[in-house]
Amino acid sequence: MKIVPKKSLGQNFLTNQEIIKSIVELGKINSKSVVIEIGPGTGNLTKEILKKKPHKFFAIEKDQNLFIKLNEKFKSEINFINQDVLEINWQYFSDYECIVFGNLPYNISAKILIDWIRLNNLNKIFKKFILMFQKEVADRLVADVNSKKYGRLTILTKWKMDSKKIMDIDPNNFFPKPKVKSSLVYFEPKDNFFKFEKSKNLENVTNVFFQNKRKMIKKPLKLLFKNSSKIIQKLGLDEKSRPQNLNPMVFFKIVREYEKQ
Q: 75's torsion region: left (phi>0), alpha (psi -120 to 50) or beta?
């Protein structure tokens, strides 16, 4: 089918068949699997997924023209949803443990991921995610403590997900070519994760710390706590540390203390 990619929707279609096959293999799809594909586009990945004969297959496509063409092409094999992925009610899928594939529009990729992390029953709805990101964002998602890429996105991801970068993908493997390198990242939701009164508090606390990530943690702690020296002592913190020196568990403990006050 003749497709004209829409720049406004961030459409860059993966065309390398070998990479497509290796992405699908990561899903370990079987006859009991429930699959969600986000942004099927021209259906290149969709065809490979269908070969694995999943139990159910949903595909979310915002582009009306693509939605119509994909529906015509795959007919009754797939449940197509013509909707913006940011407006999906994920609780609809709460009876399944879904495997999600997505070549996400790079301008909203981090926002989609954070929307998933905010879900209380993330680990009940989803089994795994195999997602494409701009390389720069992917590097932040999987960054190690003490590295320049380590930040809010790293901590929010590590709170509820185990993540691993699988590969970097050159722009030549897409049509049209994006201006940046892409990376494939694999995620599995954690069954056991740190519980907060409000997940928003983790976002707020990390935001205060990483607004000035080169500053020592003494300053953000003073902004968050009336008696910051007490928190420094209780958690055994070095007030001369910088935010990127604190591992995610330390941030989780800081949030717990923040909620107590």
A: left
Question: The tokens 């694995």 sit on which residue?
Answer: 52
Entry pTM:
0.92
Best-predicted range by mean pLDDT among 22-36, 39-53, 206-220? 22-36
d(CA 26, CA 59): 18
Identify which has the larger pLDDT, 15 or 152.
Answer: 152
Q: What is the largest CA-CA distance in the chain?
A: 65
| CA 253/CA 32 separation, integer angstroms | 39
Residue-wise pLDDT for 126-159, tens only, equals: 999 999 999 999 999 999 999 999 999 999 999 9
Domains within the chain, CATH numbers bracketed: 7-189 (3.40.50.150), 200-260 (1.10.8.100)
Residue 234 one-letter amino acid? K
Residues facing 247 on adjacent strands = none
pLDDT of residue 207: 96
**How far apart are the C-alpha atoms of 192 and 252, rounded to whole Å?**
13
State how far the Cα of 220 lies from the Cα of 232, in Å rounded to an integer. 12
Handedness of CA 77, 89, 160, 219 (dihedral sign): positive
The rounded distance, in Å, linking the Cα atoms of 11 and 63 is 10
